[in-house]
Design brief:
2 domains, seven-stranded mixed sheet, alpha/beta, 25 strands, about 20% strand, binds adenosine-5'-diphosphate, Nucleotidyltransferase, domain 5, binds D-xylulose
Protein backbone atom coordinates (compact mmCIF):
# COMPACT_ATOMS: atom_id res chain seq x y z
CA UNK A 1 0.00 0.00 0.00
CA UNK A 2 1.49 3.36 -1.03
CA UNK A 3 -0.27 6.44 0.21
CA UNK A 4 0.73 10.03 -0.48
CA UNK A 5 -0.15 13.19 1.39
CA UNK A 6 -1.08 16.43 -0.41
CA UNK A 7 -1.22 19.76 1.40
CA UNK A 8 -2.78 23.05 0.28
CA UNK A 9 -1.76 26.09 2.34
CA UNK A 10 -4.06 28.63 0.71
CA UNK A 11 -5.25 32.12 1.57
CA UNK A 12 -8.21 31.17 3.74
CA UNK A 13 -7.51 27.56 4.68
CA UNK A 14 -5.19 24.57 4.95
CA UNK A 15 -6.36 21.30 3.37
CA UNK A 16 -4.66 17.91 3.74
CA UNK A 17 -5.57 14.91 1.62
CA UNK A 18 -4.49 11.25 1.46
CA UNK A 19 -4.26 9.59 -1.96
CA UNK A 20 -4.00 5.84 -2.61
CA UNK A 21 -1.53 5.49 -5.50
CA UNK A 22 -2.27 1.82 -6.22
CA UNK A 23 -6.06 2.26 -6.38
CA UNK A 24 -5.90 5.76 -7.82
CA UNK A 25 -8.35 7.30 -5.37
CA UNK A 26 -8.65 9.84 -2.60
CA UNK A 27 -9.08 8.22 0.79
CA UNK A 28 -9.43 10.98 3.38
CA UNK A 29 -9.17 14.72 3.70
CA UNK A 30 -9.31 17.40 6.37
CA UNK A 31 -9.56 21.13 6.25
CA UNK A 32 -8.94 24.09 8.54
CA UNK A 33 -10.44 27.52 7.94
CA UNK A 34 -8.33 30.32 9.44
CA UNK A 35 -11.30 32.55 10.23
CA UNK A 36 -13.50 29.90 11.81
CA UNK A 37 -10.89 27.60 13.39
CA UNK A 38 -8.15 30.03 14.42
CA UNK A 39 -10.06 33.19 15.45
CA UNK A 40 -7.21 34.21 17.79
CA UNK A 41 -5.31 35.52 14.74
CA UNK A 42 -8.11 37.99 13.99
CA UNK A 43 -7.78 37.21 10.28
CA UNK A 44 -11.31 36.15 9.28
CA UNK A 45 -10.35 35.84 5.61
CA UNK A 46 -6.75 34.73 6.11
CA UNK A 47 -5.12 38.14 6.36
CA UNK A 48 -4.93 40.94 8.95
CA UNK A 49 -7.67 43.39 7.93
CA UNK A 50 -7.24 47.17 7.85
CA UNK A 51 -3.69 47.38 6.48
CA UNK A 52 -2.88 50.85 5.19
CA UNK A 53 -1.44 51.88 1.83
CA UNK A 54 -2.13 48.50 0.28
CA UNK A 55 -0.46 46.46 3.02
CA UNK A 56 -1.95 42.94 3.33
CA UNK A 57 -0.10 40.65 5.74
CA UNK A 58 -0.68 37.42 7.66
CA UNK A 59 1.03 35.89 10.70
CA UNK A 60 3.08 32.92 9.45
CA UNK A 61 2.41 31.12 12.73
CA UNK A 62 -1.26 30.96 11.68
CA UNK A 63 -0.18 28.81 8.72
CA UNK A 64 1.79 26.55 11.12
CA UNK A 65 -1.21 26.20 13.43
CA UNK A 66 -3.34 25.46 10.36
CA UNK A 67 -0.95 22.72 9.26
CA UNK A 68 -0.93 21.10 12.71
CA UNK A 69 -4.70 21.26 13.06
CA UNK A 70 -5.24 19.82 9.57
CA UNK A 71 -2.86 16.92 10.26
CA UNK A 72 -4.50 16.25 13.62
CA UNK A 73 -7.94 16.20 11.98
CA UNK A 74 -6.67 13.95 9.21
CA UNK A 75 -5.45 11.46 11.77
CA UNK A 76 -8.85 11.58 13.48
CA UNK A 77 -10.47 10.41 10.22
CA UNK A 78 -8.56 7.14 10.64
CA UNK A 79 -6.15 7.89 7.80
CA UNK A 80 -3.21 5.44 7.75
CA UNK A 81 -0.55 8.13 8.07
CA UNK A 82 1.99 5.41 8.90
CA UNK A 83 1.68 4.25 5.28
CA UNK A 84 2.56 7.62 3.73
CA UNK A 85 5.51 7.26 1.35
CA UNK A 86 5.71 10.81 0.07
CA UNK A 87 4.41 14.30 0.89
CA UNK A 88 4.02 17.28 -1.41
CA UNK A 89 1.85 20.36 -1.61
CA UNK A 90 1.45 24.01 -2.38
CA UNK A 91 1.13 27.46 -0.85
CA UNK A 92 -0.66 30.64 -1.88
CA UNK A 93 1.75 32.23 -4.34
CA UNK A 94 4.12 35.21 -3.88
CA UNK A 95 3.83 35.49 -0.05
CA UNK A 96 7.20 35.58 1.75
CA UNK A 97 8.44 34.34 5.13
CA UNK A 98 11.50 35.97 6.73
CA UNK A 99 13.50 33.73 9.10
CA UNK A 100 16.26 35.05 11.34
CA UNK A 101 19.30 32.89 12.18
CA UNK A 102 17.44 31.33 15.11
CA UNK A 103 14.57 30.44 12.77
CA UNK A 104 16.87 28.82 10.25
CA UNK A 105 18.38 26.71 13.03
CA UNK A 106 14.97 25.97 14.52
CA UNK A 107 13.97 24.11 11.36
CA UNK A 108 16.52 21.40 12.12
CA UNK A 109 15.69 21.01 15.81
CA UNK A 110 11.92 20.68 16.10
CA UNK A 111 10.83 19.37 19.49
CA UNK A 112 7.74 17.11 19.29
CA UNK A 113 6.85 18.12 22.84
CA UNK A 114 6.02 21.70 21.78
CA UNK A 115 3.80 23.24 19.13
CA UNK A 116 5.29 24.71 15.94
CA UNK A 117 3.70 28.01 16.93
CA UNK A 118 5.67 28.16 20.19
CA UNK A 119 8.90 26.99 18.62
CA UNK A 120 8.78 29.58 15.83
CA UNK A 121 7.83 32.51 18.04
CA UNK A 122 10.82 34.90 17.90
CA UNK A 123 12.17 33.20 14.77
CA UNK A 124 10.99 35.75 12.18
CA UNK A 125 12.91 38.89 11.25
CA UNK A 126 9.64 40.21 9.76
CA UNK A 127 6.90 39.28 12.19
CA UNK A 128 4.14 39.21 9.58
CA UNK A 129 4.33 38.05 5.98
CA UNK A 130 3.14 40.08 2.99
CA UNK A 131 0.73 37.96 0.92
CA UNK A 132 -0.42 38.08 -2.70
CA UNK A 133 -3.16 40.65 -1.96
CA UNK A 134 -0.60 43.28 -0.93
CA UNK A 135 -0.35 46.23 -3.33
CA UNK A 136 2.01 48.47 -1.34
CA UNK A 137 5.08 48.21 -3.58
CA UNK A 138 4.38 50.32 -6.69
CA UNK A 139 7.42 52.49 -5.96
CA UNK A 140 9.67 49.43 -5.66
CA UNK A 141 8.28 47.94 -8.89
CA UNK A 142 9.13 51.10 -10.83
CA UNK A 143 12.64 51.23 -9.28
CA UNK A 144 13.36 47.61 -10.23
CA UNK A 145 12.12 48.19 -13.78
CA UNK A 146 14.18 51.34 -14.12
CA UNK A 147 17.32 49.57 -12.99
CA UNK A 148 16.75 46.71 -15.44
CA UNK A 149 15.97 48.98 -18.40
CA UNK A 150 12.18 48.87 -18.43
CA UNK A 151 9.11 46.82 -17.59
CA UNK A 152 9.33 44.68 -20.72
CA UNK A 153 12.91 43.70 -19.90
CA UNK A 154 11.78 42.44 -16.48
CA UNK A 155 8.96 40.61 -18.27
CA UNK A 156 11.37 39.09 -20.81
CA UNK A 157 13.53 37.71 -18.03
CA UNK A 158 10.92 36.63 -15.48
CA UNK A 159 7.67 36.17 -17.43
CA UNK A 160 6.00 39.16 -15.70
CA UNK A 161 6.63 42.88 -15.42
CA UNK A 162 7.45 43.99 -11.86
CA UNK A 163 4.21 43.32 -9.96
CA UNK A 164 3.24 44.68 -6.55
CA UNK A 165 2.37 41.32 -4.97
CA UNK A 166 5.43 39.48 -6.33
CA UNK A 167 8.10 38.55 -3.81
CA UNK A 168 10.98 40.66 -5.23
CA UNK A 169 9.24 44.05 -4.87
CA UNK A 170 8.02 42.96 -1.40
CA UNK A 171 11.59 42.11 -0.37
CA UNK A 172 12.82 45.45 -1.72
CA UNK A 173 10.24 47.34 0.31
CA UNK A 174 11.26 45.44 3.46
CA UNK A 175 14.92 46.37 2.89
CA UNK A 176 13.95 50.01 2.26
CA UNK A 177 11.68 50.37 5.29
CA UNK A 178 13.38 48.06 7.82
CA UNK A 179 17.03 47.80 6.77
CA UNK A 180 18.19 46.43 10.12
CA UNK A 181 15.58 43.69 10.13
CA UNK A 182 16.56 42.94 6.52
CA UNK A 183 20.17 42.44 7.58
CA UNK A 184 18.99 40.13 10.38
CA UNK A 185 17.16 37.94 7.83
CA UNK A 186 18.99 34.67 7.33
CA UNK A 187 16.53 33.12 4.87
CA UNK A 188 13.57 34.32 2.79
CA UNK A 189 11.13 31.55 1.89
CA UNK A 190 7.95 31.47 -0.12
CA UNK A 191 4.88 30.14 1.72
CA UNK A 192 5.38 26.93 -0.29
CA UNK A 193 9.07 26.41 0.49
CA UNK A 194 8.49 27.39 4.13
CA UNK A 195 5.89 24.63 4.46
CA UNK A 196 8.24 22.10 2.83
CA UNK A 197 11.05 23.29 5.14
CA UNK A 198 9.00 22.74 8.27
CA UNK A 199 7.72 19.34 7.11
CA UNK A 200 11.23 18.14 6.27
CA UNK A 201 13.01 19.94 9.12
CA UNK A 202 15.47 21.37 6.59
CA UNK A 203 15.99 24.53 4.59
CA UNK A 204 13.99 23.53 1.49
CA UNK A 205 14.67 24.86 -2.03
CA UNK A 206 12.26 26.89 -4.18
CA UNK A 207 11.08 25.20 -7.39
CA UNK A 208 10.39 26.71 -10.82
CA UNK A 209 6.59 26.80 -10.56
CA UNK A 210 6.32 29.14 -7.59
CA UNK A 211 9.81 30.66 -8.02
CA UNK A 212 8.58 32.28 -11.23
CA UNK A 213 6.19 34.40 -9.16
CA UNK A 214 8.99 36.37 -7.55
CA UNK A 215 10.32 38.69 -10.31
CA UNK A 216 13.70 37.14 -9.49
CA UNK A 217 13.87 33.89 -11.50
CA UNK A 218 15.26 34.10 -15.03
CA UNK A 219 13.13 31.78 -17.16
CA UNK A 220 15.93 31.24 -19.71
CA UNK A 221 18.59 30.16 -17.22
CA UNK A 222 16.15 28.82 -14.60
CA UNK A 223 18.28 30.41 -11.90
CA UNK A 224 18.14 33.61 -9.85
CA UNK A 225 18.84 36.54 -12.18
CA UNK A 226 21.98 38.40 -10.99
CA UNK A 227 20.79 41.86 -12.10
CA UNK A 228 17.38 41.39 -10.56
CA UNK A 229 18.95 40.21 -7.30
CA UNK A 230 21.05 43.38 -7.25
CA UNK A 231 18.09 45.62 -8.06
CA UNK A 232 16.03 44.00 -5.29
CA UNK A 233 18.16 43.78 -2.13
CA UNK A 234 21.75 43.70 -0.91
CA UNK A 235 23.23 40.24 -0.45
CA UNK A 236 19.94 38.72 -1.57
CA UNK A 237 21.40 35.60 -3.17
CA UNK A 238 22.65 34.46 0.26
CA UNK A 239 19.20 35.00 1.76
CA UNK A 240 17.38 32.88 -0.85
CA UNK A 241 17.35 29.10 -0.98
CA UNK A 242 18.56 27.49 -4.22
CA UNK A 243 16.09 27.05 -7.07
CA UNK A 244 15.44 23.49 -8.32
CA UNK A 245 13.23 21.57 -10.78
CA UNK A 246 9.76 21.04 -9.33
CA UNK A 247 9.96 17.28 -8.97
CA UNK A 248 12.88 17.42 -6.50
CA UNK A 249 12.93 15.41 -3.31
CA UNK A 250 13.78 17.64 -0.36
CA UNK A 251 14.44 14.95 2.25
CA UNK A 252 12.68 12.65 4.73
CA UNK A 253 9.82 13.97 6.85
CA UNK A 254 10.95 15.60 10.11
CA UNK A 255 10.81 13.35 13.19
CA UNK A 256 8.42 15.96 14.66
CA UNK A 257 5.62 14.80 12.35
CA UNK A 258 6.45 11.13 12.90
CA UNK A 259 6.11 11.50 16.66
CA UNK A 260 3.15 13.89 16.76
CA UNK A 261 0.99 12.65 13.89
CA UNK A 262 2.23 9.11 13.27
CA UNK A 263 3.47 9.83 9.73
CA UNK A 264 5.78 7.08 8.47
CA UNK A 265 9.47 7.91 9.09
CA UNK A 266 10.10 6.62 5.53
CA UNK A 267 7.98 9.41 4.01
CA UNK A 268 9.90 11.80 1.73
CA UNK A 269 9.01 15.47 1.24
CA UNK A 270 8.93 16.75 -2.37
CA UNK A 271 9.44 20.47 -3.15
CA UNK A 272 6.18 22.41 -2.68
CA UNK A 273 4.89 24.68 -5.46
CA UNK A 274 2.34 27.52 -5.76
CA UNK A 275 -1.38 26.86 -5.45
CA UNK A 276 -2.06 27.58 -9.14
CA UNK A 277 0.73 25.36 -10.55
CA UNK A 278 -0.42 22.63 -8.15
CA UNK A 279 -3.99 23.03 -9.34
CA UNK A 280 -2.77 22.57 -12.93
CA UNK A 281 -1.61 19.10 -11.85
CA UNK A 282 -4.69 18.43 -9.72
CA UNK A 283 -7.02 19.25 -12.64
CA UNK A 284 -5.14 16.92 -15.00
CA UNK A 285 -4.22 19.93 -17.17
CA UNK A 286 -0.43 19.77 -17.39
CA UNK A 287 -0.49 19.06 -21.14
CA UNK A 288 -1.29 22.06 -23.40
CA UNK A 289 -4.90 22.11 -24.61
CA UNK A 290 -6.84 22.39 -21.34
CA UNK A 291 -7.86 25.65 -19.73
CA UNK A 292 -8.58 25.92 -16.00
CA UNK A 293 -10.50 28.63 -14.18
CA UNK A 294 -10.04 28.57 -10.42
CA UNK A 295 -12.52 30.50 -8.29
CA UNK A 296 -10.79 30.65 -4.89
CA UNK A 297 -10.11 33.83 -2.95
CA UNK A 298 -8.58 35.08 -6.20
CA UNK A 299 -10.04 34.11 -9.56
CA UNK A 300 -7.40 32.70 -11.90
CA UNK A 301 -7.39 31.59 -15.54
CA UNK A 302 -4.49 29.34 -16.53
CA UNK A 303 -3.19 26.79 -19.00
CA UNK A 304 -0.06 24.76 -19.72
CA UNK A 305 2.23 26.16 -22.44
CA UNK A 306 5.21 24.46 -24.06
CA UNK A 307 7.10 27.78 -24.37
CA UNK A 308 6.76 31.01 -22.37
CA UNK A 309 4.39 33.51 -24.02
CA UNK A 310 4.11 36.92 -22.37
CA UNK A 311 1.19 39.35 -22.06
CA UNK A 312 1.74 42.54 -24.09
CA UNK A 313 -0.36 44.42 -21.50
CA UNK A 314 1.94 43.22 -18.73
CA UNK A 315 -0.97 41.98 -16.58
CA UNK A 316 -0.52 38.23 -17.09
CA UNK A 317 2.22 35.88 -15.96
CA UNK A 318 4.32 32.87 -16.90
CA UNK A 319 5.08 30.31 -14.19
CA UNK A 320 6.78 26.91 -14.31
CA UNK A 321 4.56 23.91 -14.97
CA UNK A 322 5.49 21.47 -12.18
CA UNK A 323 5.50 18.55 -14.62
CA UNK A 324 7.65 20.32 -17.24
CA UNK A 325 7.40 23.37 -19.51
CA UNK A 326 5.50 26.48 -18.50
CA UNK A 327 2.02 27.76 -17.71
CA UNK A 328 0.39 31.12 -18.39
CA UNK A 329 -1.83 32.68 -15.76
CA UNK A 330 -4.10 35.65 -15.35
CA UNK A 331 -5.05 36.54 -11.78
CA UNK A 332 -7.96 38.69 -10.58
CA UNK A 333 -7.80 40.02 -7.02
CA UNK A 334 -11.50 40.86 -6.92
CA UNK A 335 -12.71 37.25 -7.09
CA UNK A 336 -14.68 35.46 -4.39
CA UNK A 337 -14.43 38.26 -1.85
CA UNK A 338 -15.95 40.69 -4.39
CA UNK A 339 -18.82 38.28 -5.10
CA UNK A 340 -19.35 38.05 -1.34
CA UNK A 341 -19.47 41.87 -1.08
CA UNK A 342 -22.15 42.10 -3.78
CA UNK A 343 -24.07 39.21 -2.22
CA UNK A 344 -23.95 40.88 1.21
CA UNK A 345 -24.93 44.29 -0.19
CA UNK A 346 -28.04 42.65 -1.66
CA UNK A 347 -28.75 40.95 1.67
CA UNK A 348 -28.61 37.45 0.17
CA UNK A 349 -27.04 34.07 0.90
CA UNK A 350 -25.53 31.97 -1.91
CA UNK A 351 -28.88 30.35 -2.69
CA UNK A 352 -30.52 33.78 -2.93
CA UNK A 353 -27.63 35.08 -5.01
CA UNK A 354 -28.12 32.19 -7.47
CA UNK A 355 -31.87 32.85 -7.58
CA UNK A 356 -31.23 36.53 -8.31
CA UNK A 357 -29.00 35.47 -11.23
CA UNK A 358 -31.68 33.09 -12.53
CA UNK A 359 -34.31 35.82 -12.22
CA UNK A 360 -32.37 38.26 -14.46
CA UNK A 361 -32.06 37.71 -18.23
CA UNK A 362 -28.62 36.98 -19.74
CA UNK A 363 -26.92 40.29 -20.42
CA UNK A 364 -28.54 41.77 -17.29
CA UNK A 365 -30.59 44.11 -19.53
CA UNK A 366 -27.58 46.21 -20.35
CA UNK A 367 -26.21 46.54 -16.81
CA UNK A 368 -22.43 46.26 -16.75
CA UNK A 369 -20.27 45.95 -13.66
CA UNK A 370 -16.62 45.54 -12.82
CA UNK A 371 -17.04 44.59 -9.14
CA UNK A 372 -13.73 45.99 -7.92
CA UNK A 373 -13.78 46.90 -4.24
CA UNK A 374 -10.04 47.55 -4.04
CA UNK A 375 -7.01 47.56 -6.34
CA UNK A 376 -7.21 45.19 -9.31
CA UNK A 377 -4.38 43.71 -11.34
CA UNK A 378 -6.30 42.54 -14.43
CA UNK A 379 -6.62 45.26 -15.62
CA UNK A 380 -4.22 47.12 -13.35
CA UNK A 381 -6.15 49.87 -11.62
CA UNK A 382 -7.00 51.35 -8.26
CA UNK A 383 -10.67 51.14 -7.38
CA UNK A 384 -12.70 51.57 -4.22
CA UNK A 385 -16.16 50.75 -5.54
CA UNK A 386 -17.56 48.85 -8.53
CA UNK A 387 -17.44 50.53 -11.94
CA UNK A 388 -20.83 50.34 -13.59
CA UNK A 389 -22.81 51.37 -16.65
CA UNK A 390 -26.45 50.89 -17.67
CA UNK A 391 -27.86 50.98 -14.12
CA UNK A 392 -30.93 53.18 -13.60
CA UNK A 393 -30.07 53.65 -9.91
CA UNK A 394 -27.47 52.57 -7.37
CA UNK A 395 -26.43 48.93 -7.97
CA UNK A 396 -26.92 48.03 -4.31
CA UNK A 397 -30.68 48.48 -4.72
CA UNK A 398 -31.07 46.08 -7.64
CA UNK A 399 -31.25 42.27 -7.55
CA UNK A 400 -29.95 42.29 -11.15
CA UNK A 401 -26.57 43.30 -9.70
CA UNK A 402 -25.89 39.65 -8.87
CA UNK A 403 -25.89 38.72 -12.56
CA UNK A 404 -24.16 41.95 -13.62
CA UNK A 405 -21.38 41.24 -11.08
CA UNK A 406 -20.68 37.67 -12.23
CA UNK A 407 -21.07 38.47 -15.94
CA UNK A 408 -18.75 41.44 -15.53
CA UNK A 409 -16.10 39.31 -13.83
CA UNK A 410 -16.05 36.69 -16.59
CA UNK A 411 -16.34 39.14 -19.47
CA UNK A 412 -13.33 40.89 -17.98
CA UNK A 413 -11.57 37.53 -17.65
CA UNK A 414 -12.31 36.79 -21.31
CA UNK A 415 -10.83 40.14 -22.37
CA UNK A 416 -7.76 39.89 -20.15
CA UNK A 417 -6.87 36.36 -21.27
CA UNK A 418 -7.14 37.03 -25.03
CA UNK A 419 -3.32 37.29 -25.29
CA UNK A 420 -3.01 33.55 -24.54
CA UNK A 421 -4.74 32.88 -27.88
CA UNK A 422 -6.71 29.94 -26.52
CA UNK A 423 -10.07 28.93 -27.90
CA UNK A 424 -11.08 26.27 -25.37
CA UNK A 425 -13.91 23.90 -26.17
CA UNK A 426 -14.05 22.85 -22.54
CA UNK A 427 -13.06 24.86 -19.49
CA UNK A 428 -12.23 23.05 -16.25
CA UNK A 429 -13.62 24.86 -13.23
CA UNK A 430 -12.31 24.52 -9.65
CA UNK A 431 -12.10 26.42 -6.32
CA UNK A 432 -14.71 27.26 -3.69
CA UNK A 433 -17.16 29.08 -5.98
CA UNK A 434 -17.07 26.44 -8.74
CA UNK A 435 -19.81 24.46 -7.00
CA UNK A 436 -22.27 27.28 -7.75
CA UNK A 437 -24.30 26.18 -10.82
CA UNK A 438 -25.44 29.69 -11.72
CA UNK A 439 -21.83 30.86 -11.83
CA UNK A 440 -20.73 27.80 -13.87
CA UNK A 441 -23.46 28.52 -16.45
CA UNK A 442 -22.34 32.13 -16.83
CA UNK A 443 -18.74 30.94 -17.39
CA UNK A 444 -19.99 28.60 -20.14
CA UNK A 445 -22.05 31.31 -21.82
CA UNK A 446 -19.46 34.08 -21.62
CA UNK A 447 -16.65 31.90 -22.99
CA UNK A 448 -19.01 29.97 -25.32
CA UNK A 449 -17.36 26.76 -24.08
CA UNK A 450 -18.49 23.72 -22.13
CA UNK A 451 -17.66 23.79 -18.42
CA UNK A 452 -16.53 20.73 -16.50
CA UNK A 453 -16.09 20.35 -12.80
CA UNK A 454 -14.15 17.38 -11.48
CA UNK A 455 -15.88 15.24 -8.88
CA UNK A 456 -12.93 16.23 -6.67
CA UNK A 457 -13.04 19.85 -5.53
CA UNK A 458 -9.62 20.04 -3.86
CA UNK A 459 -7.42 20.37 -6.93
CA UNK A 460 -4.54 22.12 -5.13
CA UNK A 461 -4.09 19.49 -2.40
CA UNK A 462 -4.73 16.73 -4.93
CA UNK A 463 -2.03 18.18 -7.20
CA UNK A 464 0.36 17.84 -4.26
CA UNK A 465 -0.59 14.23 -3.58
CA UNK A 466 -0.21 13.33 -7.27
CA UNK A 467 3.18 15.06 -7.58
CA UNK A 468 4.30 13.18 -4.45
CA UNK A 469 3.30 9.86 -6.03
CA UNK A 470 4.93 10.66 -9.38
CA UNK A 471 8.17 11.71 -7.68
CA UNK A 472 8.39 8.66 -5.42
CA UNK A 473 7.49 6.36 -8.32
CA UNK A 474 4.47 4.99 -6.43
CA UNK A 475 1.98 6.50 -8.87
CA UNK A 476 1.83 5.11 -12.38
CA UNK A 477 0.87 7.67 -15.06
CA UNK A 478 -1.80 5.23 -16.32
CA UNK A 479 -3.44 5.08 -12.89
CA UNK A 480 -3.46 8.88 -12.80
CA UNK A 481 -5.03 9.09 -16.28
CA UNK A 482 -7.74 6.61 -15.24
CA UNK A 483 -8.39 8.69 -12.13
CA UNK A 484 -8.96 11.84 -14.19
CA UNK A 485 -11.10 10.03 -16.70
CA UNK A 486 -13.44 8.96 -13.94
CA UNK A 487 -13.29 12.26 -12.05
CA UNK A 488 -14.25 14.20 -15.19
CA UNK A 489 -17.00 11.90 -16.37
CA UNK A 490 -19.76 14.07 -14.90
CA UNK A 491 -22.08 16.30 -16.88
CA UNK A 492 -20.76 19.21 -18.93
CA UNK A 493 -22.42 22.57 -18.46
CA UNK A 494 -23.17 23.46 -22.09
CA UNK A 495 -23.06 27.04 -23.36
CA UNK A 496 -26.16 28.65 -24.83
CA UNK A 497 -24.93 29.35 -28.38
CA UNK A 498 -27.64 31.96 -28.92
CA UNK A 499 -25.95 34.21 -26.40
CA UNK A 500 -22.68 34.56 -28.35
CA UNK A 501 -23.68 37.94 -29.76
CA UNK A 502 -25.11 39.24 -26.48
CA UNK A 503 -21.80 38.56 -24.73
CA UNK A 504 -19.64 39.83 -27.61
CA UNK A 505 -21.44 43.18 -27.33
CA UNK A 506 -21.32 43.09 -23.52
CA UNK A 507 -17.55 42.46 -23.63
CA UNK A 508 -17.07 45.67 -25.60
CA UNK A 509 -19.04 47.58 -22.96
CA UNK A 510 -16.94 46.07 -20.18
CA UNK A 511 -13.79 47.15 -22.00
CA UNK A 512 -15.24 50.68 -22.05
CA UNK A 513 -15.18 50.58 -18.23
CA UNK A 514 -11.42 49.95 -18.20
CA UNK A 515 -9.24 52.95 -17.39
CA UNK A 516 -8.01 54.73 -20.55
P1 LIG B 1 -8.73 29.61 -1.15
O1 LIG B 1 -8.23 28.31 -1.69
O2 LIG B 1 -8.22 30.82 -1.87
O3 LIG B 1 -8.54 29.73 0.34
P2 LIG B 1 -11.38 28.46 -1.82
O4 LIG B 1 -11.07 27.83 -3.13
O5 LIG B 1 -11.54 27.59 -0.62
O6 LIG B 1 -10.31 29.63 -1.45
O7 LIG B 1 -12.72 29.33 -2.03
C1 LIG B 1 -13.26 30.06 -0.98
C2 LIG B 1 -14.38 30.93 -1.52
O8 LIG B 1 -15.40 30.14 -2.14
C3 LIG B 1 -15.10 31.72 -0.46
O9 LIG B 1 -14.48 33.00 -0.27
C4 LIG B 1 -16.54 31.84 -1.00
O10 LIG B 1 -16.80 33.16 -1.47
C5 LIG B 1 -16.57 30.91 -2.19
N1 LIG B 1 -17.78 30.04 -2.18
C6 LIG B 1 -18.04 28.99 -1.37
N2 LIG B 1 -19.27 28.48 -1.64
C7 LIG B 1 -19.81 29.22 -2.65
C8 LIG B 1 -21.06 29.21 -3.40
N3 LIG B 1 -22.00 28.31 -3.16
N4 LIG B 1 -21.23 30.14 -4.36
C9 LIG B 1 -20.28 31.05 -4.63
N5 LIG B 1 -19.10 31.12 -3.96
C10 LIG B 1 -18.86 30.22 -2.98
C1 LIG C 1 -1.59 34.20 -8.50
C2 LIG C 1 -2.09 34.82 -7.24
C3 LIG C 1 -3.15 34.11 -6.46
C4 LIG C 1 -2.53 33.42 -5.24
C5 LIG C 1 -3.57 32.97 -4.23
O1 LIG C 1 -0.66 34.98 -9.16
O2 LIG C 1 -1.62 35.84 -6.82
O3 LIG C 1 -3.88 33.25 -7.25
O4 LIG C 1 -1.73 32.33 -5.65
O5 LIG C 1 -4.41 32.01 -4.68
Amino acid sequence: MALTLGIDASTQSVTALVFDCAEGKILQKSSVNFGADLPQYKAPQGFIPGGRYGKVHADPRMWLDGLELALGRLRETGAALDKITSICGAGQQHGTVYLNQKGLEQLASLDPGKSLHDQFTGCFSRSTSPIWMDTSTTEQCRAIEEQLGGAMEVCRRTGSIAIERFSGPQIKRFDGHQPLAYVQTARIHLVSSFMASVLSGTDAPIEYGDGAGMNLLNLSTLDWDPELLMATGPGLREKLPPVVPSQTEVGPVAAYFVKRYGISPQAKVVAFTGDNPSSLVGMGATQPGKVVISLGTSDTFFAAMPEPLTDPNGWGHVFGNPLGGFMTLQCFINGSLAREKVRDALGLDWAGFSEAIAGTPAGAEGRRMLPFFGPEISPRMNAEAPLTSGFASDWTGEKASARACVEGQFLNMRLCSEWMQLKPEVIYLTGGASQNDAIAQIVANVFQAGVKRLSVPDSVALGGALRAGLCSGDLDAKVMDAFFEEASSGAIVEPDRELAEVYAAAAREIRDLWPA
